[in-house]
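Quick one - first record:
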Amino acid sequence: MLTKRIIPCLDIKNGRTVKGVNFVDLRDAGDPVELAKQYADVGADELVFLDISATLEGRATTLEMVEHVAEQVNIPFTVGGGISSIEHVNDLLQCGADKVSINSSAVKRPELINELSNKFGSQCIVVAIDAKQIEEQWKVHLAGGSIPTDIDLFEWAKEVEERGAGEILFTSMNHDGTKNGFANKALAKLSSALNIPIIASGGAGDIQHFVDTFKKGKADAALAASVFHFGEIPISELKKELKNNNIEVRL
């Protein structure tokens, strides 16, 4: 049985970790480098850093922060935000990132997925997909969820896999920050349609939500922010409970 991963997500804006609800109403959650070290020390399997305003501001993720994080942690970490070129990915990996996450740039120019996968290997290319359920359809959104598209979540996810992505980070905008649980029906549909790992994001509020997303949503990893940042769910306690529910995790 493959081990399930627990991944704290640090949304970065102006050099600080922030957290909101449904992608808005952001509040400060601390220094990203300090939080990264804490998470590595308490048993997080990986970390994700998303520079959430980079795309909107038309700039690249800051390399300095990546270097500082790399000095402090001994677990894999993924960096995303405004990434749109081979050169930028190369810079991030040189600074110590293990993977990169692309989102809006991949939708605007899908060939980027092929180029990055061919150059660096699919194992370090994560495609993040922010989607919102509108009536019965899941539609992809860009630029931190601020720009809607007519692109279907499941069709796009399949194309992403075919183009060489190694993983998909799926965030349900409907569930983000609500603490009402993950979008398990959509996750299960993605999991059954694809052969690459799916990271569940959006909606974690208690330990049972993690149990459900692994069992019902068939997710390979679960990502959360505020419940970890504000100490509502200790990672060690979460992993013990997952183990008690016969979900294989690294303790």
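second record:
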Amino acid sequence: MKIKLVVFDFDSTLMDGETLELIAQDDSLRAKLKSITTQAMSGKLDFFESLIKRVSYLKGIPLMHVNEVFSNLPYMTGAVELIAKLKKNGIKTVCFSGGFDGAVKLAQKKLGFDVYFANFLHEKDGFLTGLVGGDMMTSDSKGIMLEKLQKITGITPEETMVVGDGANDLSMFKYARYKVAFCAKDVLKKQANIIINEKNLLAILEEIE
């Protein structure tokens, strides 16, 4: 097996949890966000609409709190070791996140992946405005970006592995031979050819060695 590119989702894949829910400052809001996220990741809600709705609930939260959350995210077991192993073997590692730049930028420093694409939480005067924009706003954003990366790098779908957990990762599957559903929703498992049900990214090594 010759893989040259591995693309990871962030929330609930490289990171053990959902960034939006961790930002929420009370249990009732956290539960509301969790419900919307679950429906979106199961393919029952449009990703763009669900993202806009979820971020709107964060309006007024202090940026200081958000940055504190970003600095203390729980990363998935095996993330550091897997990425180091892939890079040692000359494989490019990329993160596509429907989450947020501030979180993924810090994760890149800790986990070591080569490059990432994410969204941005808009803030003004030190508080979130409830608005969001960026590279990963729609259900097909990841597939579109992956195809562009492959054209730039000359890496083919046959040489590509993608790893995700939810419906917004489906669009990447079209451009990858190795489609990994990692602790994933059923909508993704049905389209995957590699299914991992344990929260340990090192399990992926068994599929590529």
